[in-house]
Design goal:
By secondary structure, the chain is α/β, with parallel strands linked by helices. It is 31% helix and 19% strand. It has a 5-stranded parallel β-sheet. Helix 1 runs antiparallel to helix 3 and helix 3 runs antiparallel to helix 4.
């Protein structure tokens, strides 16, 4: 959770590393990446949400929330504050829905069409570990836990817990497909 300027800087740097962003002034001005812009707004909004104290900061928070919601609608994202740990990578825009009760660890790579939500009228959402890849169209729902270093295949429907590490899960309903080294698809982990 981002509570200080130091935390904000750390989260943004981890997100930048996860996305392999090396933006110069020219690219930032003439070819901005809308998903990176979204992530920066998300992190700043989280900082001001967790910190809010004075009148100016409260007003600035509401301004950021307005800009964040406007960009969220444009990109098709429904992502709540304080759901993701550092190292978030959203490589493409397109529909992504995350329940406000979901908690996702560090180094998550999430693709378009992903839905992380509650199920059956119960407000408890998934708890997802560190270094998790969520393929396009994956659905993760219910009171479940997903362990660390797991790749969830495209269009998988995950409604039960998987706490074994270093595996690929997929299918409808999801099951273990094979053992897997997550560093093959979350490449910046090789540098850590």
């Amino acid at each position: 959770m981002i509570k200080s300027k130091k935390d904000l800087k750390y989260y943004l740097e981890r997100d930048r590393t996860a996305r392999n962003i090396k933006e110069g002034l020219f690219k930032r001005l003439f070819y901005p990446d809308p998903t990176w812009k979204f992530q920066k707004r998300l992190r700043r909004l989280e900082y001001y949400f967790n910190k809010r104290k004075g009148l100016f900061q409260s007003l600035y928070y509401y301004y950021l929330e307005y800009k964040y919601k406007k960009l969220s609608v444009k990109l098709g994202f429904s992502i709540p504050k304080n759901a993701f740990g550092p190292g978030l990578a959203i490589p493409h825009y397109g529909l992504i829905i995350v329940n406000s009760n979901a908690k996702i660890g560090e180094n998550c790579r999430i693709h378009a069409g992903v839905n992380i939500g509650a199920s059956g009228g119960v407000p408890i959402a998934p708890l997802i570990g560190n270094n998790v890849y969520l393929g396009p169209g994956a659905k993760v729902y219910g009171d479940i836990k997903i362990g660390n270093n797991i790749a969830i295949a495209a269009n998988a429907a995950v409604g039960s817990s998987f706490e074994e590490e270093n595996i690929v899960i997929g299918g409808i309903p999801a099951k273990k497909i094979s053992d897997f080294d997550i560093k093959r698809i979350i490449k910046h982990l090789n540098n850590d």
